Amino acid sequence: MKPEKQERIINAAMKEFVKSGFEKASTNEMVKDAQISKGSLFNYFSNKKDLYLFLIQNAVNIIEQIYTEIDMNERDVFERISQVGFIKLNIQKKYPLVFDFLKSLLEEEAQDVKSEINQLLASIQKDGMKRIYENIDWSKLREDIEPEKAMNILNWTMTGFAELQIAKIKSFVDIGNEVFNEWDSYKEILKRCFYKNGEE
After folding, report:
1. Which long-range contacts (CB under 8 A, 24 or more apart) does 186-192 make?
2. What is the rounded CA–CA span in Å between residue 83 and residue 80?
3. What's the pLDDT at 55?
4. d(CA 31, CA 8)
5. Is 146 helix (H, G, I), strand (E, B) or coil?
6. Are 121 and 108 in contact (CB under 8 A)?
7. 101/171 Cα distance (integer angstroms)
8. What are phi and psi of 195, to 5 degrees?
9. At 195, is the secondary structure helix, strand, or coil?
């Protein structure tokens, strides 16, 4: 498939799935938007579920870009998290429709795809968190705080914060730098709680 044609199909399909959900999504609307024939669409994908799972894998490939851009030489956990946030924001701005599609997965209830979605989202979160903490210097932590428990608290905070921000927006087109100003206020509280005096 030519890249330009593939991009049209991917964008048209994501828009329709975001708008209508898996069960109600119309392949007629997709081919109309992508300006291709229905026969042409099913030359590449055997059915709607096959197309949906392809879009999920495509979104995973986009997310992978976040981790390839992390500077692993930054060993302060809070600076690493902020760095990941900035990288993610830039990728979200570049591919807002992909992240709107990922957001729609959280709300998808169709039993035909629910198990695949749950498995994928759990895998993305587990793998992502593991890679964020790679090569971190935990020596700044207070002696009474275990790194594993610190990671759990950070994970819960980041997940909750992300869910709160996602709930506020209609599309990732709308997300901006103000998110980081808000995150910084949480970051400073956590640093004071976790770090030894003088390590901030």
Report:
1. 186/157, 186/161, 187/78, 187/81, 187/82, 190/78, 190/153, 190/154, 190/157, 191/78
2. 5
3. 94
4. 9
5. coil
6. no
7. 10
8. -90, 150
9. strand
- Cα–Cα distance for residue pair 146/138, rounded to 1 Å: 9
Query: Using CA atoms, how far apart are residues 67 and 73, in angstroms rounded to an integer?
Result: 13
The pLDDT value recorded for residue 200 is 60
- pLDDT beneath 70: ranges in the chain: 1, 198-200
List the alpha helices (DSSP H) in 25-146.
Answer: 27-34, 38-44, 48-68, 77-94, 96-107, 111-132
- Nearest Cα to Cα of residue 189 among 163, 157, 159: 157
Structure confidence at residue 145 (pLDDT) = 94
Residue 2 sits at φ, ψ, to 5 deg, of -65, 140
Which residue in the block uniquely carries the two structure tokens 């994908």? 45
What number of other Cβ atoms are within 10 A of residue 115's Cβ? 9
Instruction: State the SS3 of 167-188.
Output: HHCCCHHHCCCHHHHHHHHHHH
* Closest of 167, 180, 124, 133 to residue 152, by C-alpha: 133
The count of other CB atoms within 10 Å of the CB of residue 48 is: 21
